[in-house]
Amino acid sequence: MHRRAVLTAIAMGLVAAPTPLGAQPPPRPPRVGYLFSSTASAGRHLWEACRTGLRELGYVDGRSIRLEARWADGHHERLRELAAELVRLKVDVLVAAATPASLAAQAATGSIPIVFVAVADPVGVRLVVTLARPGGNVTGLSLLTPELSAKRLQLLRDVRPQLQRVAVLSNPDNLSHVVFLKQTRDAARTIGLQVDPVLEARNPDDIERAFRALPEGTGGLIVFDDPAIWSHRTLIVALAGQQRLPVVYGYRDFVDEGGLMSYGPNRIDLYRRTAIYVDRILKGAKPADLPVEQPTKFELVVNVKAAKALGLTIPPAVLLQADEVAQ
Asked: For a designed S-S bond to 239, which of 211, 267, 273, 293 qualifies (C-beta 3.0 to 4.6 A apart)?
């Protein structure tokens, strides 16, 4: 009678049937790791862009996918440790933001697929073999656009026609800055500008020393794209204002802080598009076969109020080119 009661309960759905011998548990959702150089607060909008891209493709964090973010808080030396931590978690894909994080991810694993984003020269820093056929376990979205340097120099010349010498602010730990510097010097020669000095900075103390070291006659400054430098954008904008120095930045975030101008790829769009690579890899594509994507959306943001504070006038031609004008 007891056996008959159990069978009746199973038939009525009151007792779960035993798992057949050899049956596999349900598959776990894929896990994707994200490695950022900046602080979580400073990079929140980029992190949200990554998640938005995944949501647009039907992935829900905690249900159909698990996302793990690690932040180096502006300290590039921590990136290898954080990358190793994500590898130990056995993530299915590792997304790395900018060159230092991407190189740290590459050093941490040769088997887990890596998707980089916002890397200036992935071939030059040996993340990939070629843009068309990356090879290995790494692919992603590049910033490799040589015309950026020429455009930024021309913008400085437009607002300060008598410009003769331009300084650059660079992070020596960022290998992409070797590429940026060569492109900037090559472009400067074509329009008769001198690029000097090259100021190096990793942290706020370095940044303050760099601005104090600017020689008289420096007519403008270009701040190279870098997560650590970007983390201290409020300080940089303040120091540039104190010295009445026109600066062109790569990221619009500097203009949001009161900076003069920015010109570069739309970073929100770049980070959102990492989801496309993650999706394709999770569905079986190999990084070696996924071409590196170059940016297609650029934005020029101009701050008229900042120009007035510097005693400068933004030419109408520049205003007409701008995607956004802050008053």
From this structure: 211
